[in-house]
Amino acid sequence: MNKKAFVDTVLNNGSLPADGFIPVDFATSSDGKDFRKENGKLVKDDVKAAKENWKKAKQELGKEQVTLELLTSDNVFA
């Protein structure tokens, strides 16, 4: 998924693409350093590795298909 294209076209509200679970300017260390700026991009986009891990997970579960359910709200905060 192209995260930048998503935030620029779908959200279109000035949001930044997520490169980690902790956003920029959200958490600082005791010396005031920003967690995200100090640790860089922690979420890697690796399609090949993702496909390999998905295949291994299905084998471990003994499943060929997995059903996912997306839970969301239909409001301004969703």
UniProtKB/TrEMBL annotation:
**Which SUPFAM superfamilies does this entry report, sorted A to Z?**
Periplasmic binding protein-like II
Annotated protein name in UniProt: Uncharacterized protein
Q: What is the scientific name of the source organism?
A: Escherichia coli
